[in-house]
Amino acid sequence: MSTTPVGPADDPYLWLEDIRGERALDWVRARNAQTEDMLFDDAHRSLEASLLEVLDSGDRIPAVTKRGDHYYNFWRDAEHPKGLWRRTAWEQYRTDRTVWEVLLDVDALAAAEGVGWVFAGTRMLRPPPGGPYRRALVMLSPDGGDAVEVREFDLPSRDWVAPEDGGFRLPSAKTRVSWDGPDALYVATDFGPGSLTRSSYARTVRRVERGQDPAHAPEVFAVDQSHVLAVVSHDARPGFERTVAVDVIDFHNSRTSVLGADRWRPIEVPTDVQVGLHRQWLLLSPQTPWEIGDRTLAPGTLAVAPLEAFLAGDRTVTEVFVPDGSSSLESYDFTRDHLLLNVLRDVTSQVLVADPSRGWAVRPLEVGAELHTFQVAAVDDEDPETANDYWLTMTGFLTPTTLARGTVDAGPPDPVKRATGFFPAEGYAVEQHFATSEDGTRVPYFQVAPRGMALDGGNPVLMNGYGGFQTSLTPSYSGTVGRAWLERRTADGRGGVYVVANIRGGGEYGPDWHRAALREARHRAYEDFAAVARDLVARGVTAPERLAATGRSNGGLLVGNMLTGYPELFGAISCGVPLLDMRRYTRLGAGHSWIAEYGDPEVPGDWEFLRTFSPYHRFDDERLAEGAGYPATLIWTATSDDRVGPEQARKMAAKLTDAGVPDIWYHEALDGGHAGASDNRQSARMLATSYGFLWRKVGAARR
Hints:
Number of strands: 39
Strand content: 25-35%
CATH topology of the domain at 25-52 and 422-698: Rossmann fold
Protein name: Putative peptidase
CATH architecture of the domain at 25-52 and 422-698: 3-Layer(aba) Sandwich
Number of helices: 15
Pfam families: Peptidase_S9, Peptidase_S9_N
CATH class of the domain at 25-52 and 422-698: Alpha Beta
Oligomer: single chain
Radius of gyration: 25 Å
Largest sheet: 8 strands, mixed
GO molecular function: oligopeptidase activity; serine-type endopeptidase activity
Keywords: Hydrolase, Protease, Serine protease
């Protein structure tokens, strides 16, 4: 296998990077047709319909956000595939037959305007104290990608505020906005030449007043073009109003500043210390050991300090959470009088409560059982009636999600909504196991399997993993996994087994677990995943020909490395919206923003390790010549993915196919962005395509 870097001059598939070029799209159409002819049979259509039933189910829990007296929700179902933005009152929400006030019907908007709008969120304008919410900014993507159009919406009339009436409207771009009072916005967007970073995000932020042409608005903040993006936001919380700017240097480093009377006041901490602000508090979490004052904070610690004192030079901090070898902090949120901490211990959730009035003393909040995921979040810390209320979301591989609501120090929370199950969970068991990786590290993984499963190597297993960006994979209920994999049966009556691998690069054990697989150490994530695969075989759960692997985005890079580095371990692979060409990834989509995670291929020393986990370059056609095989592989993506982009998936599929690798398949949806789907029907098709392909290869065939 050659180690010579492949660049633009000697890459024969560069033409597939012309995303909407006719030649490239003709290739896509031809490959789509081949895959659909092979896969889209009656069984596929039946599975797609079954998964759509799950996704469209009216028994799902409508997640809500409280703003003022209303609870807001975005909802998709069979009658509204593009969705409804709606709201209700608490008395209605807690009932089984909630009556909703529809604010925006996205299907009707798309039909009226002839654009396939995809709802991408809102930014509400905080009203004067005691007043109702009246205005919002609505983000709409024309194709499901990251670029959005921003429009001002009037809540009382449930209609747009027209630009001719002074309404804000910004054209489609990778835009971030924040209200600065009722008549001005902080806008980070594409203002023309020089206004974007190499990562394709906004380099500059302007303050745009109502009725003003954004091109003529004054610039208030800017970052270097080599950084990821510039962000400015205004916190209008009464008594704690402030404007904050963040220079996102790379995915793991940033600088935060607070606007003073006439200048930005930087929060002087190392760039890899995560910074949070809430009321009078500054929250700090280092990603590497940090010497501050007379102490050293361990990576993953959460410390607090009074903001103004810290800005004035005082370095006294209080450690609220300190990780040990088996725990990590996932997230936090504030009620009026408490800090709520979501913690993982060996990838099982714990909830802690810290009390600022008692020196940040921490105690557990008793919420439930092991091998489940529990997440707490404040309901509305500014409303006196809900000031110390919290939402508690509970889920597990075999436990449909329950949403409860409680008040800190007022007894156990009360269930509000329970989701319906979509497969018979009583026939399965969840276990946690640990594999030993190549360097001796113990790697946890979850196994969901039929009770009494025979350990004779004959069970079809689906492995899922991610291993990047400090993202944790925790137990959660999936009706689609249940129906598409667990419920299915082989010719000899075996049910599917689902495995989630908690490999390094993720956040399951905090920053150190993540940093253990950064850049030149990336191979550890792949060694971990391979170790789990081998452990499943060693324990008699499965055999390589019965073992499938799936991953998306960074997880697509993971399974791409399984395909090219560990092909003997797997019978089939589904590689979705993937990074695969690590020589070119920084020039495609938003790839430049991930240099801190992977390395910079423009730096010769970095390319030397990047090429070792670049599937596009790691592929060895000599393996074919020697008679060794590769697992059946489906590579899938979306034309409108403007984050990773479809280029890498196209090029990898073309390279493998032209080399004569058998059983290589490709599918590309036109819409859907990086999610691969922009509505439930597209999601059902995408999931049925991926799961259906894998089952056909490792589950349907007789041993």
